Amino acid sequence: MSKRDNTALARFITSLGSLNDYGSTVAQTKQALDLKSSQPLNQSGEDIAIFQDALGGIAAVKQTGFSVAGIIAINCAFTTPSVEQPTLPGHLRNGFYNADDRIAITIDSRARLSYFPPEVVTQANLQTIVTAFQESKQDEVAAWRVFADLAKLQPFQDGNKRTALIAANAAANTWAHENYLVLPFNDLDRVDFTTALMRYYLATDKSASQLAFDRMMAVLPSNREQQLHRPISSTEDARPQQVRIKPMLRKG
Predict the structure, then answer these.
(1) pLDDT in tens, 235-248
(2) Spatial CB neighbours of 200, under 8 Å, sequence gap ≥ 6
(3) Is residue 1 part of a domain?
(4) Which among 36, 157, 55, 182 is positioned nearest to 102, based on CA atoms?
(5) For residue 159, what are the domain limits?
(6) Domain of life here (predicted)?
(7) Is residue 25 within 8 Å of 237, Cβ to Cβ?
(8) Per the domain annotation, does 211 fall within a domain?
(9) CA 204, CA 29: separation in Å to the nearest integer?
(10) Into how many domains does the chain fold?
(11) pLDDT tens profile 154-189
């Protein structure tokens, strides 16, 4: 029996982790998958939790399927100790009764601009997203709409974008061929994608929502499947250099 090639899955987990400052390389992640151990990963930060929870979330939704229960099952799997975890995994937020459920997303700290998602999220809200996909063409565009709508809804206390990306892959059923939906591979496109997602959060009408969504789609990798399965390059195995970093985007 041939050994499983974990290259594409390693790239998916690294892409998923980029939502939470995942620091391990694609090569490290592949080695962790090959060895079925988190030991090759960076041992500081949140990498171990992101890695283990990604596998747990994928396994949960594979078993349950893309549905309201499946989306909740993904977040329920986020239990590895980490500051990025929901206090109550799988719990749908209700800000009327629980102070921890009241969240806001900072869009522009200087302008004091924040996005406030609904205070109360119900299974009916999740069903609306599931039904919209079921009634669509069920193509990749529709699957990315699942990601955008779940991320904007912020149904859980934490791990919402990670939950949304795994759920989008479940909707697109990427598991068999490992043609995972992933974020842009390079940092500049990923910044553009995140900025467009923030615009999607703030959109209050269909026209603004569609414009922001189109911006997101425009920077996604067009040759994703080829890049997911190609051999790992030297840059994907490179450890961060010990240099002084000067950020291009500054807060002040």
Answers:
(1) 777 665 544 545 54
(2) 148, 151, 152, 209, 212, 213, 216
(3) no
(4) 157
(5) 7-234
(6) Bacteria
(7) yes
(8) yes
(9) 39
(10) 1
(11) 999 999 999 999 999 999 999 989 999 999 988 899
What span, in angstroms and rounded, lies between the C-alpha atoms of 104 and 224? 32
Question: Cα(53)–Cα(57) distance, rounded to whole angstroms?
Answer: 6
Pairing state between β 105-108 and 113-115: antiparallel
Tell whether 195 is covered by a domain.
yes
Burial of 223 per CB tally in 10 Å (0-12, 13-18, 19+): exposed
d(CA 48, CA 194): 24
User: Can you tell me the distance from the alpha carbon of 201 to that of 224, in angstroms, rounded to the nearest whole number?
Assistant: 25
**Residue 244 belongs to a domain:** no
The single-letter DSSP state of residue 100 is: G
- CATH number for the domain harbouring residue 228: 1.10.3290.10
